[in-house]
Amino acid sequence: MIAFLGMGLLGSNFVRALINKGNSVQVWNRTTSKATALEAYGAKAFAGVTAAVKGASRIHITLKDDHTVDEVLAAAAPGLQPGAVIIDHTTTSADGAVQRTKDWKARGFTYLHAPVFMGPQNALESTGYMLVSGDQEVVATYLPVLKEMTGQVVNFGDVEGKAAGMKLIGNSFLVGLTAGLADTLSLAKALNIPLSDVTGLFGEWNPGNGLAARVKRMTSGTYDNPSWELNMARKDTQLFIDAANKAGVPLAVLPAIAKEMDQWIAKGHGQEDWTVIGKNSI
C-alpha cells in the first residue's frame, strides 16, 4: 500500500501513473476535492492525513515548501506504521532536507528526499529526472521503485541534502533563463520584430548547444583569450537597452547585467572575455 500526500498537478499524475502500474494508492490533499477526484482512477481518498497514511509502507509527498512538509508530516505521524519510508519530492531547502532525514531516522522512519525535474505530463508518463543523495544503502533500497516513477534517477552520492541543492541550482537556471527570454522577447517587441521570426531564429540557431562550453569557460578562471570582449558585450547590451527605452518597453534583467558589466570594466577587465563577470561565482 502506498500513500500519496499532495494532489497538485504533479502529485495527482504521479498517483495515476502508480495506479496504472497496479499499485493501490491512498491519497490526501488539504483541499479534499482534489483527492476525491483521484477516486475516478482507482485511488482511495481520505479527508484526514493521519488516516491516509495508515497501512502504507511507503508515503510519497509533493507539497509546497519546508514548512508545509513539516506541518503535514507532523499531522500524519500518528498514522504511520513502524518502519515506513517517507519519500519527499517537494522542492525544499537543503538544510530542511538534511534536518528531516535526521529527525525521522531518530523516530525510526526512513526519510528520502527525491526532488524532480518533471512536469505533470512527465509524472503521468514516468519520464523526466528524479534526484537523490544521502545514505547509499537507503538509496539502493528504493532505487527500483523510484526508477518506475521517472525516466532517470540521478544519484549525487552520500551527502545528505545535495539532491535538494542540485534541484535549487537547476531551478535557478530555469528562472534566470525565463527572465532573460522575457527581456529578449521585449526587445523583439521594441524592434517591431514578429515573434515568429524570433522562434524561427532559435529554431535554426540553438544557443543552448553551447551551455557546457560556456560553463567551462566561466569556471576556468582565465579570461585573457576572449572570444567576445567584455567591452564589446557591454556596448551591445547598451544597444538592447536603448532600443527598449526608445520604444517604451521595460526590461527586467538586462539593466542589472549592464550594471554588473560596468563594475568589472571599472576594475580593468574590459578587454577580457565577457564571462569574467561570473568570476566571483567560482
TrEMBL record:
UniProt keyword annotations, A-Z: Oxidoreductase
Pfam families, sorted: NAD_binding_2, RedAm-like_C
Residues of the active site: K167
Protein name, UniProt field: NAD(P)-dependent oxidoreductase
Matches recorded under Gene3D superfamilies: N-(1-d-carboxylethyl)-l-norvaline Dehydrogenase, domain 2, NAD(P)-binding Rossmann-like Domain
Organism taxonomic ancestry: Bacteria, Pseudomonadati, Bacteroidota, Chitinophagia, Chitinophagales
Residue ranges of every copy of the NADPH-dependent reductive aminase-like C-terminal domain listed in the record: 173-277
Domain 6-phosphogluconate dehydrogenase NADP-binding: 2-155
One of the record's GO molecular function terms: NADP binding
InterPro entries: 6-PGluconate_DH-like_C_sf, 6PGD_dom2, 6PGDH_NADP-bd, HIBADH-related, HIBADH-related_NP60_sf, NAD(P)-bd_dom_sf, RedAm-like_C
